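In the design runs reported in the main text, the only information available to the sequence generator was the tokenized backbone. The following block is the verbatim input for one such run; it is reproduced so that readers can re-run the procedure and compare outputs position by position.
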């Protein structure tokens, strides 16, 4: 599950930095795709929870430590209802995000997942603290995603739609919406994918073996969590660096150079514009006072 959150944050960063044009051409909002992934994820994990035992563990041996571990009926019910909530919420998100509409249902499912994970009691106090912060980080990612969808993110209209902001009659009206390089909202839109990457790393580092080793070494939860967040900063830096390298190299290198021969206007400097050097070298015109010789 931790690698799934990291992959989710990576895909979200790709759509933010290099995939908005594809989203416009597809005619589907990002929340439509998110809802499909969450619904299929919920169906798969729900079937795995219902088939807890020989079928699941024989097909996927890695899950033996999950599905054959001793647990009481309440924990099994909690996992089953959590997976059922993903499946049901995914269906609602698919319906609400039809016709290229935005939806907050995927973000709401992320918040509920974080709340469920933050309230899991563990055998070690260190494990309880790490799981709690993982849940809080996941809830923060969902809340940031809701704010982004409702107040920050642009509307993904199709390129073929002749609207007032996407037509030949509009001069430089949609450049900021498409590119968004100078928009202050771009800074906030990096928050949800980073928090997803951080929550995925926290969850992957919350295994019993790792936490027992950390507890035996005498490390407290604050130090351990700060180490994981430091790794999350490095990992997200690598992710955005690779996306940026892809967008400015290879066949995309020509697209990163601004075109000067179009009708789009170049944003002028806020304070002053320097005089071009070519105008300073023009030979001055001399006027003669008096009658002009024929």
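Verbatim output:
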């Amino acid at each position: 599950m931790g690698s799934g959150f990291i992959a989710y944050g990576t895909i979200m960063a790709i759509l933010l930095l290099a995939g908005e044009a594809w989203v416009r051409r597809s005619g589907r909002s990002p929340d439509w795709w998110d809802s499909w992934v969450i619904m299929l994820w919920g169906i798969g994990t729900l079937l795995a929870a219902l088939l807890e035992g020989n079928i699941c563990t024989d097909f996927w041996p890695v899950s033996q430590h999950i599905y054959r571990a001793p647990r009481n009926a309440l924990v099994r019910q909690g996992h089953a209802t959590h997976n059922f909530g993903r499946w049901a919420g995914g269906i609602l998100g698919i319906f609400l995000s039809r016709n290229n509409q935005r939806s907050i249902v995927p973000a709401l499912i992320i918040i509920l997942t974080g709340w469920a994970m933050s309230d899991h009691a563990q055998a070690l106090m260190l494990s309880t603290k790490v799981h709690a912060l993982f849940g809080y980080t996941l809830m923060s990612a969902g809340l940031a995603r809701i704010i982004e969808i409702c107040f920050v993110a642009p509307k993904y209209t199709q390129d073929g739609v002749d609207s007032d902001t996407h037509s030949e009659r509009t001069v430089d009206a949609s450049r900021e919406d498409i590119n968004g390089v100078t928009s202050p909202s771009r800074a906030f839109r990096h928050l949800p994918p980073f928090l997803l990457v951080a929550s995925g790393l926290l969850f992957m580092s919350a295994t019993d073996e790792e936490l027992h080793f950390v507890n035996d070494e005498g490390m407290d939860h604050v130090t351990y969590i700060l180490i994981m967040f430091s790794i999350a900063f490095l990992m997200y830096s690598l992710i955005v660096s690779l996306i940026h390298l892809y967008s400015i190299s290879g066949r995309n290198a020509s697209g990163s150079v601004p075109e000067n021969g179009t009708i789009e206007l170049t944003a002028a400097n806020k304070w002053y514009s320097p005089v071009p050097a070519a105008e300073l070298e023009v030979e001055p015109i001399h006027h003669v006072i008096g009658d002009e010789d024929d």
